[in-house]
Amino acid sequence: MISLYLGAIEAGGTKFVCAVGGENGEVYERVTFATKNPSETMEEVVQFFKSHKLKAIGIGSFGPVDLDRTSPTYGYITSTPKLNWSNFPFVEEIKKHFNVPIGFDTDVNAAALGELLWGAAKGETGCIYMTVGTGIGVGAVIEGELLHGLSHPEMGHILIRRHPDDPFAGSCPFHQDCLEGLASGPAIEKRWGKKGAELADRPEVWELEAFYLAQAVANYILILSPRKVILGGGVMKQPQLLPLVRQKVVHLLNGYVQHEAILHRIDEYIVSPGLGDNAGICGALALAKRAMEQ
Ligand code: ADP
Ligand code: ZN
């Protein structure tokens, strides 16, 4: 029997991860390199994949990206402030070198799909995946479909209620005190004057962080009715944070969403990524698998 190899690209603003893997989410080989300008970076990507026989390639990319298949700029990274990457025709560039089906989506949608196929949401029909890191992003699979739209959802930038005792102005260059501006890793660092990892013994830091994240998660639950909520990213490495978020979500919803997942099984409903730090790259593999099947 011939093995099927799938190619996966997790494209981030600071690093690229490329992998070759299989249809069950297994990763056979992977490389990581710093994101440079597009031509240098693509050269490294092509070199890595050239020695493999690929059936499909999946790309989970930083954004914003154009996901509209009828658009002339489908498969582009569009308006990013990241130097030289704006209007980059990602899918076209990969297609030049590999004549295989290509799956393309946001990094967080990819991670949501990976978690659904092989991770914490396995067996469900959908989930949301939220990363709380340098930025805040959320991907969603709703009843089997990756959530797109006019562009794609940007759930990290929603507006939430400020804590009355929080004097921090917020760090989002677009909205100042949106969710990302108040609760991303850099926002924590600016507010408290130290990196999140060095604030482990300051309970007030994590109370406030959970205050913001729980509002966001409660909103996502009310709007999307996700089957499972997965919280990843560097900031979620604080082990005290997830239980606080769960507790505050239940409190905020206050019994309104009458489902046992929320009323009695919150520990199984709001969870850490089953794929750990591999959610992104396995997600890209999942996009490749989907592209091959379609
Ligand atoms: P990125 O979002 O760039 O892909 P990460 O998900 O690793 O990368 O997020 C990086 C952010 O997470 C940084 O702001 C960093 O300070 C924060 N972070 C990393 N580890 C921890 C930790 N153990 N506790 C709290 N914050 C952390
Ligand atoms: Zn914002």
From TrEMBL:
Alphabetical UniProt keywords: ATP-binding, Carbohydrate metabolism, Kinase, Magnesium, Metal-binding, Nucleotide-binding, Transferase, Zinc
Keyword Protease: no
Enzyme Commission designation: 2.7.1.4
Substrates-to-products reaction catalysed: D-fructose + ATP = D-fructose 6-phosphate + ADP + H(+)
Single GO molecular function: metal ion binding
SUPFAM superfamilies tied to this protein: Actin-like ATPase domain (SSF53067)
Cofactors required: Mg(2+)
InterPro entries: ATPase_NBD, Carb_Metab_Reg_Kinase/Isom, ROK, ROK_cs
Transmembrane annotation, as ranges: none
Enzyme class (EC, first level): transferase
Recorded family membership: Belongs to the ROK (NagC/XylR) family.
Protein name per UniProt: fructokinase
Organism annotation: Thermolongibacillus altinsuensis
